[in-house]
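Handout, section B. The chain below has 214 residues.
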Amino acid sequence: MAVQGVIVPVTPFAQNCTLLWEERERRATVIDPGGDIPAIRAALDEAGVSAERILLTHGHIDHAGGAAELAAALGVEVWGPDARDAFLLAGLEQQGRQFGIAGARAVTPDRWLAEGDAVSIAGERFTVLHCPGHTPGHIVFVSTEARLAVVGDVLFRGSIGRTDFPYGDADALVRSIRDKLFPLGDDIRFLCGHGPGGTFGEERLTNPFVGERG
């Protein structure tokens, strides 16, 4: 089954809200709906798909700020991230005031996700990896069958996630990338929270923060 998808940039941070679905079933997983709910719903309508679930990689406002509103509007559940991000999800309204983003609401997931859990996305089995460093409870979704990963703010093309928060951990983030992501295979494509995606192999070789030539 081929994974279909579209990326919807949301919030002033241009966060990549990702919609993934399988062509036959046409039921989409919405990953990291940080805000701009009308734009996300319009993208679902334009693609001709219905949402079956919301997944969160971590608890920052640009990734999770619209989850409660969208879940209520569509009648779907919110899964993830790891429970170690509960304090961030509980403080989404405060994050909204801090960054001038209106409408953010705290959200309690219907299901927390942990290392080793599996979720179905676009008809494929994606494994959950706990990849802390950017936030304590950040998770990544990886399908070795589809050779695809959704990595949130762990890894970017040519960069990595910020760790200059009180709860950030640069060493943990580097370990997450080098010990958990790169060993999965150079050919795995990744979708990230901001900007264009890439492959683990390209980042393993050239990323200045975690790459062999960096």
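Note. The domain at 3-206 is CATH 3.60.15.10 (Metallo-beta-lactamase; Chain A). Compare this with the example in section A.
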